Amino acid sequence: MDYGKFKYQQQKRKQEAKKKQTVIQIKEVKFRPKTDEHDYQTKLKHIRRFLDGGDRCKVTIFFRGREIVHKDRGLIVLERVKEDTLDIAKMDQAPRSEGRTMNMMLAPIKK
Hints:
- It is a single chain.
- By secondary structure, the chain is α+β, with helices and mostly antiparallel strands.
- The chain has a single domain, classed as Translation Initiation Factor IF3, CATH 3.30.110.10.
- The chain has helices at 3-20, 37-52, 71-84, and strands at 26-31, 56-62, 89-98, 101-108.
- A hairpin with a 2-residue loop joins strand 3 and strand 4 (101-108).
- The longest helix has 18 residues, at 3-20.
- The termini are far apart.
- 14% of the residues are buried.
């Protein structure tokens, strides 16, 4: 067998496999516990756009100063985001607190 022909066919197979694969990115949207309604709706629209595009979305609540005492408010915001995206996303990672942030991962529902 011709080695050059073998290398060429191998390269073509790699190219075809690469064409069919999709790269899933993780997009992040940051909230604060005191995020107002209009800002919340705008960020929710961004989350929906990311999920419709097939990307996973990391929702982060960032606490500044003495806000860290009220982690329950951050949890309320994350639960609200989860409820508002139930039709297009599932929760991939439950809300988890790390230092001054609280994170949750959303993954798009396969169609």
